[in-house]
Structures are given as C-alpha cells and as structure tokens.
What does this fold into?
Amino acid sequence: MNPYIQYMYSYPHKTAYRSLSGVSLKDYAPLLRGSGHGLYLHIPFCQAKCGYCNLFSVTGQKEEKIERYLDTVERQSQQYQSLLAPYQTEFSELVIGGGTPLLLSEWQLLRMFALLEKYFTFQKGRELIIETAPNQTDAKRLSILKQAKVTRVSMGIQSFSDQELRVLGRQHSAQRAREALALLKSYHFPCINVDFIYGIPGQSTEGLLASLKEALTYKPDEIFLYPLYIRHGVRMQRQLFEGKEMVLEPEAALIQYREARDYLCAEGYRQDSMRRFVKGRAKRGYTECGMGTSLALGCGGRSYLGNLHFCTPYGVTQKDCLRQLEDYEHTIDFGKITHGICLTSEELSRRWVIRHLLIRPGLEMKRYQEQFGTQAEEDFPILMQWKEEKYLKEVLEGTRRYLTLTEKGMELSDYLGPQLISAKVDKLMKEWGAAYERTDTSISGQSKKL
Ligand code: SF4
It folds into this structure.
C-alpha cells in the first residue's frame, strides 16, 4: 500500500473547478454578514521556482509588475468593499500567502497593509498570518510586520542541509536559514511556524532528524512536516520522472515520518495532523483552512462562500501563471465569478468529513448530525470499515464524541483521505490531469533530454 496518494489540503481540489457562468458574488455576499470571516491575499511572486512547487507563483517579475498587481488588488478591494457594505462584514483572520509575500519591497509591503486596512474591517484581536522565506526575511521587513501586528509568521526552511536544499531547488543556504530564523525569533511574534520536508532524494532519516533537532534549538511554536510530492508540471517531475507523479520511495518516507513524529512528540510537540506539530497550547494563527467563510483577494487565492468555491484557473508553470495574471489585471468586474465549483449538499458533507477527520480532535459526531441531519457513519459506511481496521477510534472529550484517527490512521492520512473523494470530483480531477498532459509539451520535450 502506498501511504502517499494525495494531500487533502482542501476538498474539492482546484483541478475539479471549471468555468462558471451567471454566478455573481453579490448573491453570496450575505454569507459574509457580521463577524468571524477569513480574508486571504495571495502574493504570487517568488525569487525562483522551487523544484517541487505546484503553487500559483511566478518568478523574475520587475518591481513595476508587482506594483501593477497591487493596483489590481486595490481595485478588487474597492469593489469588494462596496459589495460587502450592506453586511457590516468584519474579518477575524487575515492570511497573506504566496508565493513569497516578503519579496515585496518595503514600501510595497506598507502599501499592501495600508490598503487592506483601508478597504476592510477587522475584528479586535484578529489573527494576521504571513508566509516568508529565509532570503526575504530581514530586519526592515520584520519591523513592518511587527508594526502591522502580525500574529503568526510561517517560514519555509525545508532542511538545514545544503545538499538537500539544492535537490529541492531552494534558493537559500542552510546558513541563511539559521540567520533568518534567529532574526525572526528576536521579534517575538506570538506564533512562529517552520516548514520541513522529508522524502527528499538522498535524504537519510538521520539527516531529517538533524534538521529537526536544529530547528528545535529555535523553539518554534509549530512545525509542519511535509512529505515531498512531485506533482503535475513541477520542475522535479520533468527532471526526474519523465512526467509521472509520485512520492519518492514511499517506504523510506514512511520510516522517516515515524522517526520524526516520535522525536517531535518526545520533545513535547502535540500532533494535530499528519503534518502539523504544535508546542504546548499553541493554537494561535491556526486556520481550519476553508471550513468557514473566506474571501480571497489577488490571483491564485480561493474563496469559500457556502457551497461556492472559486478562484482563478489553476496554473503551475510560469507560462500558465503569467497568463492568469494578465487576465487578472484586465478583469473589470470582480463581482462576476467565472471559475470555480458549486457543491451539492452531498459534496458539502463529504468536505466536512474530510476536513475534520484528518485533523485532531477529529469528526464530532453530534456536530455532523446537527449540520446535515444524518449520521456520518451512515452517510459514509467506509468510516465503520476504518474503525474495524483500527484506522479510526471513538473518543469522548467531555460530552463530545469524536471519530479520531489512530496513530496508524494518522500516518495513512494521504491514503485514507483520497478514498473519500466522490466519483464525480475524481472524474473532474482526472480529466484535468489528462488534458494537462496532452497540452504540456514541455514535459515530454524536456524529459527526453534529461
Ligand atoms: S515552494 Fe514557496 S517559495 Fe518555492 S516557488 Fe513555491 S511558493 Fe515560491
């Protein structure tokens, strides 16, 4: 059994989205009434594309291009402000992701924070989460984040081995990561998260543990541990696998995962999901990503408004992402939703199960029933099978009964989760993959050379 089928970060995946017509944000805006919503801003610019990256980001863009992007974000914000005005929307969380948000110049960062404050209202005590990379983390930018009252900074370190960083195609050195993390720590943000990767070609379990051990000397509040996936269109796919998607040596990756998990838990980190380890009571800044109502700004970010999920069409390569950016800049009416998916109630319950089951404390049975009027185990009989197979267990916390992943189930999150994908969504995703392979000549062209 391959434990690494798919990361169920959200459901459905963007590759299941299609063109939409006649959908207007105005009709969904009442869902953003009052407080408690999320706002996301996507900054799709990076210094260079990492070898494994399938996120929406472009490289080599001049300052003027980024400036034009901010102009468009401002125009979109203005339109959203008018749409939301009747509903007194207050956001409890602002997430700025990418890409590499701190690639922006200092004054662009100041402009970005100022425009968000100008067009949107935030609740008192709101979370403000931002991603960074070691090469873009400096004192001036961190002072701007401090001034903006950022509550959580997430830094993609991935490894403290220069050799592994080279294989991943990361731009920073291990030494640069050390300096950046030390500097970040000195600013005392309420929550600091660091990301690491396992399953890197040539990485040993000892090498992974050495990176984690070093990371712990900086006492991060959270550690995310990602298995290396090689997906459609990423550079490593073309270089190493002649177009096939895979996790390298799944058995070796699983051994690394187990060792790393045991190590982090022994060091006092609590495991909340297959990837997330948190220290003590650290909760700040964590988002259940898309389980609530969330509105996205920029190109590549997605919005979740009830049964409507939408974003710009999914792109991975520089060419595809640049084309989307062009379209974004030329959008006149941001209230017109042209790409996404409208979920049926069956898909919404599926999404609920996927999103809750893979994160501790798990799926609360009564809450599911209140939400959908039915029993989760009756709607999804596979859950009973997983209980018998000891992937799931029932736990009581106070009066709440949860269906929770066992240790064995947790390490198989990327194998179990995909089994909950509906046949319809699976078909849409496969169609996207097939169409991508047909049209992406660069894959066949380059793989032959390497
Ligand atoms: S992994 Fe992060 S830093 Fe690397 S190219 Fe992708 S978005 Fe940019």
Q: What stands out?
A: The longest helix spans residues 63-84. Residues 46, 49-50, 53, 55, 57, 98-100, 133, 156 surround iron/sulfur cluster (CB under 6 Å). The first strand starts at residue 18 and ends at 24. The chain has 18 helices and 20 strands.
